[in-house]
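Methods, example record. To illustrate the input and output format used throughout this study, we show the complete record for CpaF family protein. The sequence lines were provided to the predictor; the line carrying structure tokens was produced by it.
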Amino acid sequence: MIDHSLVKRFRQDVGDRLAHQRRLDQANGLPAMTGEDERQFARALISQVLEDHARSEIGLGRTPPTVEEEEALAAGIHAALFGVGRLQPLLDDTEVENIDINGCDKVFVSYADGQEVMQDPVADSDDELIELIQILAAYSGLSSRPFDTANPQLDLRLPDGSRLSAVMDVTVRPAVSIRRARLGKVFMSDLVGNGTISPDIGRFLSAAVAARKNLMIAGSTNAGKTTLLRALANEIAPSERLITVERALELGLDQFPELHPNVVAFEQRLPNSEGQGEISMAELVRRSLRMNPSRVIVGEVLGDEIVTMLNAMTQGNDGSLSTIHANSSMEVFNRISTYALQANERLPIDATHMLIAGAIDFVVFIEKRNDYHVGGTLRRYVSSIREVNGCDGRVLSSEVFTPGPDGTAVPHAPVSCLEELAAHGYNPGGW
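The corresponding predicted structure is encoded as:
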């Protein structure tokens, strides 16, 4: 067990020494330390602080920390300075999938095998939890994001790629949800290996990406939409210029230059305390079209940016990818129409359906299910793929892959663009 009061005290001490060194370097005209240099310097300071503490304990006639206890303290201080404090061990656990915090001492952790376990507190008080989130909000995105009574909602991407959502003052206690990015660099072969898609669907989707088809990935919360989007993006040739647009940076395609050397990541900017400076998703999608993109990838459609995105898809920027919340592949069209009604353009249903028909080629629906009859195993799998065929007062579509006996999608109907997909290596096995 770590003495968290010591971690907090030593973190303050090391932080003060780091700040003092920064001021000295600036006064002497020295270049600022790089992130890695600062971490190395902090490790040396942590060792020095812990050594001073051990001497102090001996001088007072008390037993100093053991080697194991010192190592735990050092890791805790480092995590508090550069990581996410007491959350760090949970984020370091590769089997942790989701972390839900309903106040500092009610921490529920979901694991990859479907288990949910209550864990130790992540802070000594709710105020300390809020302070931790505020620190993360200040440094984790492209710009500082406020989290206070005036701005009680927060979405951001943690340094390890996990997605954090937090609220305060609209709940009795501050609430935080963290969705782990367990598969950062993920490929179609990985999804075939873990049963998310069959080999046939893997070949189909790879060919659709290569043929520059516009794909909308749909599913419920935490179904695996973003992971599938990353895998599809990794089918795109390294020579292409990608522009991603997100509310909070999550995709992280720019983190892998060996796969995508030419990436620009846009992040929505929230208004400041005076209500100024906001840059919306719709504005960013519009701006992305002026940045010479090969493809535009919109991380998640949740509002009025849908009209701008669909327009982009019909203006020659083929091969776009995006995700949307929906309960079925068919429901996607109604969801898009609802968002379009909320947009500044106030598109009527008929116009929206015409826009969908001209923009989207395929809707890929991914499901999450806990199979209690096989030991509670959590499964994620693509269960349906729908091709958009046109518009006649409503969106015309055909379900080319439907759920098979185990729920995973199997071929159901011919694809109208089969020749195009065949030119990119897709040879259907079921027709």
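Annotations derived from this record:
The first strand starts at residue 96 and ends at 102.
The chain has a mean pLDDT of 86.
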